Amino acid sequence: MGLSDIFLVIVSSAGLLHGIAFAIYLCFIKKKKKLANYLLALILVFMAFRIGKSVLLNFGNDLEPLFIFAGLAFLLLIGPLIRWYYMAMTHASFKLPRYYLLELLPFSIIFLGSFFVTKDWFETNNQQVVIVFGSILIFIYLHFAFYIFLAASMLKKTRKSYSKEPQTKSQRAIFSWLSLLIVGFIVIWISYFLNIIEDTVPYIIGPIMYSVVVYFLSIKAFQLKVTDIDGNTFKKNDDMAFFNEISKLIVEDKLGLEPDVSLSSVSKLMGKSTQKVSEVINQYAKRNFNDFVNFHRVQEAKKMLLDDENDKYTISAIAFDSGFSSLSSFNGAFKKFEGITPSAFRKSVRT
């Protein structure tokens, strides 16, 4: 084995070992025990078996057919695990129903069948053997592709259902993480599938791409803190309803246009603490209280500036009618949210 081969073995095996280490962390070191983390750990472990088979097949000699077929069969196991993981990350209080185990039937059949594959049968050039092996191989990769597509469809549907609602930081983190995970699985799938249809793509590319993907995803997992959250993030709670009440008070009931409106006065009207009101506004509006109120004041001012009948009013008059206590604060807020001054905005819509 040359130096280049040794280097390739190290690179391709690094991701495998890293994936197993990450799985151990999720199952045994991570304090918060969540079903989603266990499912992700299983995906990493079984992917490691699959990648390990590829490394041994590429660099080893006389690899037993049992090991080859068993390694391929793990892709039939990973597909359902991906779907279950996506459900655990997007459904509150998700529990794995027993009938879901029926999805493991293809894996069970291929895995058990691998024990009956002899070396003589596997190495023969018999046309029937080639057809059977080729058909199984294609089925396995199409099965894996189907579950990747299914996970992408599930994510798209969930994202759409929350598109009209303010999203929390944790919800946005889950959407970003699951999107990256789909891309990672697509990259791995393509790297292996290209080797099947095109011999010019080296087989070792699969394990190498897996190493790159697993390192990247593990970094993103910690950055997004997805191991600390799961589908319970999407549980309906009173905070969103409370935020909608605050928005109605500020926007629809025009309380935001009152110059003396404050966090304290809104808290008293809502019967909640100032800390709770501030927390909910920050979570769903992604702004502090003052910016939240000023933003809606600016939107009201824009409506006035766009109305031809208000041309007789000065910028100062519109500022005070919008709830601002001074022209300077109005100009500052307007430029912050719209990028231009109120005077420039009025001129731009009149030209």
What does this protein look like?
The chain is mainly alpha-helical and 351 residues long. It has 2 domains: 3-234, Rhopdopsin 7-helix transmembrane proteins (Up-down Bundle); 238-350, Arc Repressor Mutant, subunit A (Orthogonal Bundle). Helix content is 73%, strand content 0%. It has helices at 3-29, 35-59, 65-90, 105-113, 119-123, 127-161, 169-197, 205-224, 238-252, 263-270, 274-285, 289-306, 315-321, 327-338, 342-350. It is elongated, with a radius of gyration of 29 Å. The mean pLDDT is 87.
Radius of gyration: 29 Å
What is the number of domains?
A: 2
**Run of helices and strands:** HHHHHHHHHHHHHHH
Please estimate the helix content. Answer: over 70%
Count of DSSP strands? 0
Oligomeric status of the shown chains? single chain
The portion of residues forming beta strands comes to under 5%
CA-based shape: elongated
Pfam families: HTH_18
Keywords: DNA-binding, Membrane, Transcription, Transcription regulation, Transmembrane, Transmembrane helix
InterPro entries: Homeodomain-like_sf, HTH_AraC, HTH_AraC-typ_CS, Tscrpt_reg_AraC-type_HTH
GO molecular function, one term: DNA-binding transcription factor activity
Gist of the model:
The protein folds into two domains: 3-234, Rhopdopsin 7-helix transmembrane proteins; 238-350, Homeodomain-like (Arc Repressor Mutant, subunit A). It is 73% helix and 0% strand. The protein is built from 15 helices and no strands.
